[in-house]
């Protein structure tokens, strides 16, 4: 069976969706839609998609679609997902989940009520090194988690940052958490699997480090620090627009070993508890680290040679798992409880750093 895919929202990320879908043998994109007709038409022409629309209801009614990819701003996610589910479509959702957790919960309930499935694009967690880390943890090699550091760097000079700060009506300005809400789920979703299932203490602080130009003012903060405590586990989440080089990594301290997962360089490094005493014990770790680096570089080179090292390799894997869950009626790749918990933590952060927006 081949799944028929429709995409709503024809911005830059939609190109990545289509490119990865076209690499899979179980799905094909048959229709795209955007409120701006020229965006939909251009996307359809670029990828030879047979149908394009500026009316989502019309796309649903005129095509027999199995899955809808929603790549629009989060304010529209709930309504589009509800319509998709009512039309019998499964939902693949761009992050963040929704405008807030209340809407996110209603979204998931609508999908479940219709007997459909949904997942969200946490694609970094499905890259090869991230999956290897998950296997390492599942085998008990880490021990019990004690502390997690999740870091996400961002370059405001990039295309998205320039678009945001050149347009006072940009949709990110309308989010309760503004720039943070659009991005930090990539940092938070690394932490949530290690947090206990109990109430958490969350302390969030944010500030603006950039200099405003041309006497312009805006209320977008660009540096965020979050501390999370619960059940004997702590976590730090850092978002920085100014630290260089721009990084994206996680460090997990366990009772047996410590792991460092780098999502920029696609590596996983382990720091083991040293069993050799004295000076030799201090001498060996750099050699072990060098050996791990060489092994990771060799693995990445092998992936590169096999065309498995491309930018959206994690998205390709996530799509494959999600489509398999539809075709074979198996569990979705990301539990809904985990998606909702990420959203809840993001709501808490937004309430602390932008209290006036949510008052």
What labels would you give this structure?
13 strands; globular; 6-stranded parallel beta sheet; alpha/beta; 7-stranded mixed beta sheet; 13 helices; 359 residues
Summarize the structure.
The chain has 359 residues and is of the alpha/beta class.
What this model shows, in words?
The protein has 359 residues and is an alpha/beta fold. Helices cover 41% and strands 22% of the residues. The chain is built from 13 helices and 13 strands. It has helices at residues 12-21, 37-46, 56-62, 77-86, 101-113, 128-138, 159-165, 178-183, 185-191, 278-305, 313-327, 336-353, 355-358; strands at 3-8, 27-33, 51-53, 67-70, 90-93, 118-120, 145-153, 201-207, 223-230, 233-240, 248-254, 257-262, 267-272. The protein has a 7-stranded mixed β-sheet. α5 links the parallel β5 and β6 (118-120). The N and C termini lie far apart (50 Å). The model has no long low-confidence stretch (mean pLDDT 94).
């Amino acid at each position: 069976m081949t799944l028929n895919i429709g995409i709503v929202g024809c911005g830059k990320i939609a190109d990545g969706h289509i490119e990865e879908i076209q690499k899979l043998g179980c799905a094909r994109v048959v229709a795209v839609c955007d409120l701006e007709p020229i965006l939909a038409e251009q996307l359809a022409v670029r990828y030879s998609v047979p149908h394009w629309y500026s009316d989502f209801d019309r796309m649903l009614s005129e095509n027999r679609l199995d899955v809808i990819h929603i790549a629009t701003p989060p304010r529209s996610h709930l309504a589009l997902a509800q319509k998709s589910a009512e039309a019998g479509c499964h939902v693949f959702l761009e992050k963040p989940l929704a405008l807030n957790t209340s809407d996110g919960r209603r979204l998931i309930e609508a999908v479940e009520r219709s007997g459909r499935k949904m997942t969200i694009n946490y694609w970094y967690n499905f890259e090869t090194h991230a999956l290897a880390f998950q296997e390492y943890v599942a085998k008990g090699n880490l021990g019990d988690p004690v502390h997690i550091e999740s870091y996400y760097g961002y370059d405001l000079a990039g295309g998205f940052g320039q678009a945001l700060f050149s347009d006072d009506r940009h949709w990110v300005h309308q989010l309760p958490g503004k720039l943070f809400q659009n991005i930090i789920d990539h940092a938070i979703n690394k932490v949530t699997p290690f947090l206990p299932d109990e109430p958490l203490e969350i302390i969030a602080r944010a500030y603006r480090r950039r200099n405003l130009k041309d006497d312009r003012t805006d209320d977008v903060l660009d540096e965020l620090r979050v501390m999370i405590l619960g059940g004997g586990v702590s976590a730090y989440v850092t978002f920085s627009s100014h630290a260089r080089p721009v990084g994206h990594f996680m460090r997990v301290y366990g009772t047996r070993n410590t792991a460092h997962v780098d999502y920029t360089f696609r590596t996983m490094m382990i720091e083991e508890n040293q069993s050799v005493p004295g000076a030799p014990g201090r001498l060996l770790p750099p050699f072990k680290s060098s050996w791990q680096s060489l092994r990771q570089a060799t693995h990445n080179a092998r992936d590169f040679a096999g065309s498995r090292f491309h930018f959206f390799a994690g998205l390709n894997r996530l799509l494959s798992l999600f489509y398999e869950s539809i075709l074979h009626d198996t569990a979705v790749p990301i539990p809904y409880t985990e998606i909702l918990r990420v959203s809840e933590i993001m709501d808490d952060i937004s309430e602390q750093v932008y209290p006036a927006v949510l008052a």
